[in-house]
From TrEMBL:
Domain HRDC: 613-687
Domain UvrD-like helicase ATP-binding: 9-290
InterPro entries: DExx_box_DNA_helicase_dom_sf, DNA_helicase_UvrD-like_C, DNA_helicase_UvrD/REP, HRDC-like_sf, HRDC_dom, HRDC_dom_sf, P-loop_NTPase, UvrD-like_ATP-bd
Family per similarity comment: Belongs to the helicase family. UvrD subfamily.
PANTHER family according to UniProt: ATP-DEPENDENT DNA HELICASE UVRD2, UVRD / RECB / PCRA DNA HELICASE FAMILY MEMBER
Enzyme class: isomerase
Sample GO molecular function, one term: helicase activity
Alphabetically ordered keywords of this record: ATP-binding, Helicase, Hydrolase, Isomerase, Nucleotide-binding
PROSITE patterns, sorted: HRDC, UVRD_HELICASE_ATP_BIND, UVRD_HELICASE_CTER
EC number(s) per entry: 5.6.2.4
Catalyzed chemical reaction(s): Couples ATP hydrolysis with the unwinding of duplex DNA by translocating in the 3'-5' direction; ATP + H2O = ADP + phosphate + H(+)
Protein name, per record: DNA 3'-5' helicase
Residues the entry annotates as binding ATP: 30-37
Length: 687
């Protein structure tokens, strides 16, 4: 464990006050990047160090699996082992598994997972509503909102009216769907995510001996991002606490971005009233971002209205100066995406790590054009959705396949065995182009990389050991990291930070989102989303928008209202319409048959996938072996060194010199620098 002086020296006086506050209620109300997450992890370490609690008695909760993983990593770095850091749901799931036989007994339940929309569809059908997937998702959203807000079916119409919700169908019909859904779900002995929380709270509220055992086990509670707590989660928290008050909460009301799902900053803002003895700490020094980014963040939130705005403080940047945020307007989305990809490449060449770059957007559907553009320039990326890694369909399918393969005691090198098994469910050598196929491929590849990692860390790693490792990870909700540029929605980016952040697609109708229009509270939430986005950047911040969706389309869009007054006066976009100088590249052609190439893979190969290949197999094998060595040495997945397509392109084109090498897409200045000599000597047969 870290020594006490070392533990405290990385804190400023206010953070220190929160860390050293006596056991009991503590509330940290502070802006983005001021060290809230850092403060709570240090507080946990401090309490454990001082002997006030043991690590095993601490339960820290947050809202996303990634944030919980981040918290665990930070705790480990402070030498705290055995403290629980989980999402509300993961914590509830664990507790329920443990207490269920005692409070209910009998049949075990199962999590509803993907069947959920099927049940909603049946319910919608009975209510005479459309079963089209968009409307099912909206209906599911209403059920989730109701349950998170502790609203029973019969109370839905009144609650929806009170909060002026946009109901996807007449309220009475939503009630009907909600009721039927619950019935079908109970009949099938399934629990949804909200049930996990409901049953956990009920187990503690209604069973004295369960509450007693639980409260004996957990004595100290910590909640990060408390501004996004729902009434249901608050109820669980209250059940955990009982009469006790050993609770530390941290949050920023100006980052409340889940109101639409029932979250409310009220418990955070009212905390000092509920616990008059609470130590209340405000932080205003921003350690994350340069003063240039901080200034923009302050400007974004300056014009916010409503209750959360009352708690805002002007952030004061602590880092050295950096570049000014840039604002750029484009004629269409593909130009915007191409420019982002070029800038990403330039950053990579400057030495910024791919994992330190993020492209953030308002809705997941926006990712595709950026994926395409990144694929075209050969930059690895990862799309982060709301869905947890081990819950993705392809990952669960992979687990089934791996488990059954493990039962047959396969022999051979683990990564190869894993690759073969996964090939059976669609893992190709080359990444497919575009959206969900690409995402699926990345997920499967991440499993192969995990196998590669296991081989280097565990003696005699075999398939059964690997499957156990995956199950442990799934349990801990700790997905393997994929080295690459992050593509994520603004919602998924909360609490995280990157050296370079691209905020893209900043047009009216997208940010604020169309359906927020005319609803002041909803528009304010959209403004907070932009604030969350801006404050993710440490150094480089890019903001952009496109006037038309498709190339050559009508330029009818307007840039986001939130940008007015922020785009510098002398910026071309502040005058009329700006012409983006970026030229469209000539369309690449197949070097064998001459036809136009469209997908990333054939562009890299400079030929159609179906045209005859003149690959030098022997060279290719050498290149692959060399890549495996380098990847192991650099501790990165192999495709970060070079993708398969790049290796094939090298083995086909056999570049003799640097000029020939850089002509292959995917080989930029930084790759040339690091690997150029190796590759050229392999091609020349010198190695
Ligand atoms: P958010 O509101 O986005 O969740 P946060 O308030 O939780 O932000 P942290 O993530 O804890 O902020 O901290 C932001 C960054 O500043 C981190 O990289 C953290 O390590 C660093 N940091 C925080 N406090 C200090 C400090 N006293 N000295 C140096 N660096 C600090
Ligand atoms: Mg945080």
């Amino acid at each position: 464990m870290l020594r006490m002086d070392r533990l405290l020296e990385g804190l400023d006086p206010e953070q220190r006050a929160a860390v050293e506050a006596p056991r009991g209620p503590v509330c940290v109300l502070a802006g983005a990047g001021t060290g809230k997450t850092r403060t709570i992890t240090h507080r946990i370490a401090y309490l454990v160090q001082r002997g006030h609690v043991s690590a095993g008695q601490v339960l820290a909760v947050t809202f996303t699996a990634r944030a919980a993983g981040e918290m665990r990593t930070r705790l480990r770095a402070l030498g705290v082992h055995g403290a629980q850091a989980r999402t509300f749901h993961a914590a509830a799931l664990r507790q329920l598994r443990y207490f269920w036989p005692r409070v209910v007994g009998g049949e075990q339940w199962q999590l509803i997972d993907r069947n959920k929309l099927r049940l909603v569809a049946q319910a919608a059908n009975r209510a005479g509503l459309s079963t089209e997937s968009d409307s099912l998702r909206d209906l599911a959203g209403e059920i989730e909102w109701s349950k998170a807000s502790l609203v029973a079916p019969e109370d839905y119409p009144a609650a929806a009216a009170r909060t002026s919700r946009d109901t996807p169908a007449p309220a009475e019909q939503v009630v009907q769907v909600y009721r039927t859904y619950e019935e079908l779900k109970n009949q099938a002995q399934l629990l949804d995510f909200d049930d996990l929380l409901l049953h956990t709270a009920a187990a503690l509220e209604e069973h004295g001996e369960v509450a007693e055992e639980f409260r004996d086990r957990y004595r100290c509670f910590v909640v990060d991002e408390y501004q996004d707590v729902t009434p249901l989660q608050q109820r669980v928290l209250d059940a955990w606490l009982g009469e006790r008050d050993d609770l530390t909460v941290v949050g920023d009301a100006n980052q409340t971005i889940y109101s639409f799902a029932g979250a409310s900053p009220r418990p955070l803002l009212d905390f000092p009233r509920r616990f008059p003895a609470a130590a209340v700490v405000r932080l205003e020094r921003d350690y994350r971002s340069t003063p240039q980014v901080v200034e923009l963040a302050n400007d974004v939130i300056k014009s916010a209205r409503g209750r959360p705005a009352g708690s805002r403080l002007r952030l004061i940047g602590q880092r050295p100066d950096g570049p000014k945020p840039t604002f750029t307007e484009f004629d269409d989305e593909s130009l915007e995406a191409a420019a982002v990809a070029q800038r990403v490449k330039a950053l990579l060449d400057e030495g910024v790590a791919a994992s330190e770059i993020a492209v953030l957007y308002r809705v997941n559907a926006q990712s595709e054009v950026f994926e395409q553009a990144l694929a075209e320039v050969g930059v690895p990326y990862q799309v982060r959705g709301g869905e947890r890694f081990f819950q993705r369909a392809e990952v669960r399918q992979a687990m089934v396949a791996l488990r059954s393969a493990a039962a047959h005691e396969p022999t051979g090198e683990l990564p190869k065995v894993v690759r073969e098994v996964l090939a059976g469910i669609g893992l190709t050598d080359e990444p497919p182009a575009g959206g969900s196929a690409r995402e699926k491929w990345e997920s499967l590849l991440a499993l192969v990389e995990l196998a590669e990692e296991l081989v280097t860390t565990v003696d005699g790693a075999d398939l059964p050991k690997f499957v156990t490792e995956l199950e442990l990870r799934a349990e801990a909700q700790h997905p393997p990291t994929v080295e690459g540029v992050t593509l994520a929605s603004l919602h998924a980016a909360k609490g995280l930070e990157w050296d370079a952040v691209f905020l893209v697609g900043l047009v009216e109708g997208t940010l604020p989102i169309q359906h927020a229009d005319g609803d002041e509270a909803a528009v304010e939430e959209e403004r907070r989303l932009l604030y969350v986005g801006v404050t993710r950047a440490r150094v480089h911040l890019w903001l952009s928008w496109a006037l038309a969706r498709a190339a050559g389309g009508r330029r009818y869009r307007r840039r986001s209202r939130f940008l007015y007054g922020l785009v510098p006066e002398d910026h071309p976009a502040s005058r009329a319409v700006k012409r983006e100088p970026l030229q469209r590249k000539p369309k690449p052609q197949c070097r064998v048959c001459g036809s136009a190439l469209v997908d990333a893979r054939s562009i890299k190969l400079s030929r159609c996938a179906s045209c005859p290949s003149d690959v030098d197999e022997e060279l290719l094998a050498k290149l692959r072996a060399w890549r495996a060595d380098r990847a192991r040495e650099l501790k990165v997945p192999a495709y970060v060194v070079f993708t398969d397509a790049t290796l094939v392109a090298i083995a086909e084109q056999r570049p003799e010199d640097v000029a020939g090498l850089v002509a292959i897409s995917g080989i930029g200045a930084s790759k040339l620098d690091r690997f150029g000599d190796d590759v050229l000597s392999l091609v020349r047969g010198e190695r």
